[in-house]
Specification:
By secondary structure, the chain is α/β, with parallel strands linked by helices. It folds into two domains: 4-182, 3-Layer(aba) Sandwich (Rossmann fold), CATH 3.40.50; 200-255, no CATH class. It is built from nine helices and seven strands; from the N terminus they run βαββαβααβαβαααβα. The small GTPases Rab are key regulators in vesicle trafficking. It is a lipid-anchor. Belongs to the small GTPase superfamily. Rab family.
């Protein structure tokens, strides 16, 4: 029996400083970054997960900037999303209050092919810190009233519930949240991803999504040039399996006109 690859685009959204980029570092590269560098627009990363003996899930993670000045671009970033992770900081009540705005923004700008909302899980990050400035009862009520698949307490720093929450997100995308939580060994088997020579930065995406990513990167390039002209260091550095602007722009441009890479 042949193998099947499933490509899912999963958004990582929420206010700035809540730990979204650290989540991606921890999940994709299994490391925690103490230093903070604000995301400019959007960053990309790829995670490959064995799904079954015959299926592989490729998670395309879109780390969306939390700063308000980038919200006008979210319609472009959200395009063709299969799932979403909305994160807030339990020690910052404003980041929790703003989750309502983020969920409304998501639901108003992207839907699944059948018209239903994109499945979304809510992460209560920095749960290792105390005291919480948000009650668990408030989070529970908000999650239920706003159609989240689930809410999960996480600590990126302590690596608590990171793989588990992302597995749940994949299960939600596949309409069976329990599958990845109970199938196979508890220890996650991860295939490290490195760009093959015949694929632009290793992301196998449909032509419409490549157009979207190309436009997003052009926008980021303009933003970074503007910031650089103001003596603000904005150029992100390469992050292992995460793909940054300087790494993507050239190979994307060179492959942009080539044949569609895939699919499902």
């Amino acid at each position: 029996m042949g193998s099947h690859d499933h490509l899912f685009k999963v958004l990582i959204v929420g206010d700035g400083h809540v730990g979204k980029t650290s989540l991606v570092h921890r999940y994709v590269e299994e490391r925690f970054c103490k230093s903070y560098k604000s995301t400019v627009g959007v960053d990309f990363a790829l995670k490959v997960l064995p799904w079954s003996n015959t299926e592989t899930v490729r998670l395309q993670l879109w780390d969306i900037a939390g700063q308000e000045r980038f919200t006008s671009m979210t319609r472009i970033y959200y395009k063709e999303a299969s799932g979403c992770v909305l994160m807030f900081d339990v020690t910052d009540p404003s980041s929790f209050r703003n989750c309502h705005r983020w969920k409304e923004d998501l639901d108003s700008k992207v839907r699944l092919a059948g018209g239903s909302p994109v499945p979304c899980i809510l992460l209560a990050n920095k749960c290792d810190l105390s005291p919480w400035q948000v009650s668990r009862e408030s989070v529970e009520a908000f999650s239920e009233s706003n159609g989240f698949v689930a809410w999960i307490e996480t600590s990126v720093k302590e690596n608590k519930n990171i793989s588990e929450s992302m597995r749940y997100a994949v299960g939600a995308v596949c309409h069976d949240p329990d599958t990845l939580l109970t199938n196979g060994d508890e220890k996650e088997q991860v295939e490290r991803h490195f760009p093959p020579d015949d694929s632009p930065f290793g992301l196998h995406v449909s032509f419409p999504m490549r157009v979207t990513m190309f436009l997003v990167l052009l926008g980021r390039m303009l933003v970074e040039k503007m910031m650089a002209s103001r003596s603000i260091a904005a150029t992100p550095e390469k992050m292992g399996s995460s793909f940054k602007l300087n790494d993507l722009a050239t190979p994307m441009a060179s492959h942009f006109g080539e044949k569609q890479l895939i699919h499902e």
